[in-house]
Amino acid sequence: MxxxxxxxxxxxxYASSIADEIEAKAVIDAIEKEHKRCSHVVFAYRVGxxxxxxxxxxxxxxxxxxxxxxxxxxxxxxxxxxxxxxxxAAICSVA
Length: 95
Prior knowledge:
The chain contains two helices and five strands. By secondary structure, the protein is α+β, with helices and mostly antiparallel strands. The chain has a single domain, classed as Impact, N-terminal domain (Ribosomal Protein S5, domain 2, 2-Layer Sandwich), CATH 3.30.230. The protein has a five-stranded antiparallel sheet with strand order 1-2-5-3-4, sandwiched between helices. Strand 3 and strand 4 form a beta hairpin. The model is unreliable at 87-95 (pLDDT under 50).
C-alpha cells in the first residue's frame, strides 16, 4: 500500500499479483469492502491478453485508463492495481 496526499485529498494505492480475472475481482471487492467510505475506487488489471479498467465516476479515460497504460508500459502481467481517494469529508480506514 502507498499513500499520497494532494490538495486535501488522500490517495491510497494497492498493487497485487493475481493469477486470473476471478482473483482480480476478488482483490478489488476486498479492497472496496475495507475502504467503504472512499469516494472513488479506480482499478486496472491485466491477465495475459485480458485488460480491464474502471474510472470510478471520474471523467472517462482519466483514471483507470492511465493506470492500465502504466501497467502496459512496464510490460507487467498478472497484476491488479487499485486506487482509492478520500477527501477530508470522507473518512477511510487504512490498513
